[in-house]
Amino acid sequence: MEVSCSPAKQHLFVERLIACMDSNMPVHLRHAALRAAHNARQQIASIDAIEDAKLRDVILTKLSPAILSVVCPRQSTTPVDDISDSFEYYDRDLCYVQLIFALAKNPNWHPHFSEDHHIDRCISMIAECCESSLEHPFYIAGILLQIAPEQMSATSFASITDQQGWKMLRSAWSHVCHIIDDIHCFELLPVLAEGAKKYMQIASKSDLERLVKNVDRVLETLERRGSGQGGRAVDAVKELRTVASETLISFGQ
User: Fold this and answer.
1) What's the rounded Cα separation, in Å, for the pair 198 and 182?
2) CA gyration radius for the chain?
3) Considering 108, 149, 185, 219, which has the largest number of Cβ atoms within 10 A of its Cβ?
4) How far is it, in rounded angstroms, from Cα 193 to Cα 3?
5) Structure confidence by residue, pLDDT tens digits, 73-107
6) What is the number of alpha carbons within 13 Å of residue 200 lying toward its C-beta?
7) What's the CA gap between 223 and 25, in Å, rounded?
8) Could you tell me if 68 and 121 are in contact, meaning their C-beta atoms sit under 8 angstroms apart?
9) CA 109, CA 59: separation in Å to the nearest integer?
10) 178 vs 22, 96, 110, 153, CA distance in Å?
11) C-alpha closest to that of 167 among 220, 109, 207
12) Rounded Cα distance, 135 and 162, in Å
């Protein structure tokens, strides 16, 4: 979806996405619609640039729950729609978290994440994703850390335990080097650093050692690229390394 498209074409694109995401549609069609939304995620995130107020309302109130229905189909979904290939789960869930991550950069989406249960979905993914070598935790952390606690339901916010928060951040930092070329991910580093500092107090010695190694890799990557990338993000990563190293030293005292 291009913002420069005519309002009629934008309406048609969004309406077709919503229709194809319906739980009564074949699973491959729902996933294709999710990928299409994923490919247009930056344009959808920039909802403020859409002049048509009616279209903005449709995107926020109808597309948002439709997106969730792809990863959380209704109980009535027939067995034939079940996913048998684990790669399809991986692809579907990665498209989903990358899409929501992009939308989370615009505060206009935040109330809908709570109302439509995207936050609950992301929290439910923490345990499974953090036990495997996936990049999903980075995007999940980016989603949850960009949303202020007061914009989450009390139940959702309270359900994130310190253990879950630390697992999520620990896993997220292990994948930063792999996705740092994405400017949108790079811009999140200060938020990710603050999140790690918040939860690292419950970390084990081995977890802290791994965190320091991962942060060192990020700094080395940034230094190899010269002064083109720097500023607040690099300062935040350096500060995280200092805090993590000092916390690690305290284990020997």
Assistant:
1) 25
2) 19
3) 185
4) 33
5) 764 333 334 454 566 778 899 999 999 999 999 99
6) 28
7) 49
8) yes
9) 10
10) 33, 19, 27, 32
11) 207
12) 20
> Which residues lie below 8 Å from residue 246, measured CB to CB, with a gap of 6+?
none
Q: Are 201 and 163 in contact (CB under 8 A)?
A: no
Residue 252: strand, helix, or coil? coil
**First CA to last CA distance, the chain:** 57
Q: What are phi and psi of 181, to 5 degrees?
A: -70, -20
Q: What 3-state DSSP class applies to 96?
A: helix
Give the tokens for residue 211.
């965190």
SS3 78: coil
* Residues in the chain, overall count: 253
**Burial environment of residue 156 by CB neighbours within 10 A (0 to 12, 13 to 18, 19 or more):** buried
Give the pLDDT confidence of 157-167 residue by residue, as tens digits: 667 889 999 99
- Residue with tokens 């619609």, as numbered in its chain: 33
Helix (H) or strand (E) holding 187: none
Measured CA to CA, the distance from residue 247 to residue 21 in angstroms comes to 47
DSSP state of 253: -
Tell me the pTM: 0.88
Q: What is d(CA 214, CA 208) in angstroms, rounded to the nearest whole number?
A: 10
